[in-house]
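task queued by scheduler; priority normal; single chain, no ligands, no partner chains; default sampling; output format set to structure tokens
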Amino acid sequence: MKRLIRCAMKRETCDLVIKNARIFNVFTGKLERGDVAVAEGRVVAIGRGYRGKTVYDAAGKTVLPGFIDAHIHVESSMLSPEAFASLSVPCGTSAIVADPHELVNVCGIAGAEYVKEAFSRLRVGGVNPLDVYLQLPSCVPATPFETSGAVLTGKETARELRRDLFFGLGEMMNFPAVLAAEDDVLEKLEAAADLNKPVDGHAPGVGGKEFCAYRCAGVLTDHESLTAKECREKVARGMYVQIRCGSSVNNIADAPKAIDAYNFRRFILCSDDKNAHDLNTRGHLDDALRRLVKAGLKAKYAVAMTTINVADCYGLRDVGAVAPRYFADMVVVDDMEHFNVSAVFKRGVLVAENGKPLFAHGERYLPDAVRSTVRVKKVTKEDFKVVGHGGKFRAMEVQPYGLYTGETFVPAPEGELDCRGTDLNKLAVVERHFATGNIGMGLVKGYGFHGGALAVSVAHDSHNLVVLGDEDAAMARAVALLEEAGGGIALVSAEGEDVFPLDIAGLMSSASPEEVVRRTGEIAAKARKMGVKDCYEPFMTLVFLSLAVIPKLKVLDRGLFDLDKFSFVPLEEKA
């Protein structure tokens, strides 16, 4: 403290001075011209005439606080934690609130321990370039209707939350159980409340008395608001609303309509799911800021939503602002319209410059606990046969650019269903944790794919194998390819087979970011040539079709599930 004061008073030379800057003040919403003085990893002053051991000339560019992602599943990037950091930090990301929901559903608590340890090993100039606030997944499994690799009860959750490993409780997706006041779910929520740890939410379309009840359970945030009206209602009831800009889903177009000069402090920015290709080509939170401003939101509101608002929401001390005493986590951008990042500082250390990380990300930390996790009972083409009896088949219709799946009905003539030459695909979820042989079957209308099969070992939330196709033999072969690879993404067509392994829990790859981007991009491009429509991300959309906490119709390893009815339904209805 003495040195901070002495540096602020210009009695000592600072560690770093960023000169000739335009500094955005999140407290006033205004830009100031001057220098940023840093000592001991903290900002000590905004002014002029400071001496620094290191001087960085901002050349008139804008200095912002480091960006904080309010909710993200790192696993959805398909990158190792080290590789994720190497792509996100150069985009200005200084911290993430990470929910390792996917890894824990596959590997149990060991999955969370892996994420934290892998990130903690990153170093540049004696500092870690990325702060990770780890949430303990609240829904393992997400529902009692599917098979996951692990189960966390209320008692186990209460025990684990007491560890310093976990910052808070991850998104409470099982909102029906919350509204029903089920004891096991409430035990998890009460444990977080007793420890004064934040609880993230997940309540699509929940309003009225049901939303009031959800808030009474202590849930702090929600990233599933689809309309401006829903955003306003949730903010009015004391919720922080997370504006989501992910690879598959975003509400950038509608959410800004809900934000005004009074309530903007209750909105925060998150990615939820961001794939490697988008991180590499579009960016991370810098991309979200560009898109928000282009959608008409004032830049000062947008910046607050990914800095000081997130810090206030989660009670993060001394982050989220460029101001005295705050940690010197800063991003230098060209302006507050394009948000092109030229430099990133963490605790006053330059950690990325001109789109490149300044820290090593070569050797991966890969414990045995996250390897060899795909165990499948052998399947044949007969396992994917669908037979009609003269009634009508239920079929899923996937919302463009979204996660919701509508329900439609198509004729179910007598005999075996042949999807070739139609706008239907078969969708199967194959259990992959204990080789039980469970296979849930459904139909998808309008995806556009034809001539083979797509398969992936990433499938929210229990991460069984999801395979879509119009040829049964190709579907069986795609599953076999994933088992041989230990998980990954696979494509089978008349032209050949393509597979990219995901050797970390069947969710992520230990390959370099460049390799992940290149190979996943190649396979996705081939899927597009086989007809997948532009409004769907070939594999990222696929992984949500078994997500039983998003309406309406989803396929689980135990069958076809209707969230509105909260029960399984038959594939065929009688005429």
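post-processing summary
- The mean pLDDT is 95.
- The chain has two domains: 66-319, 371-573.
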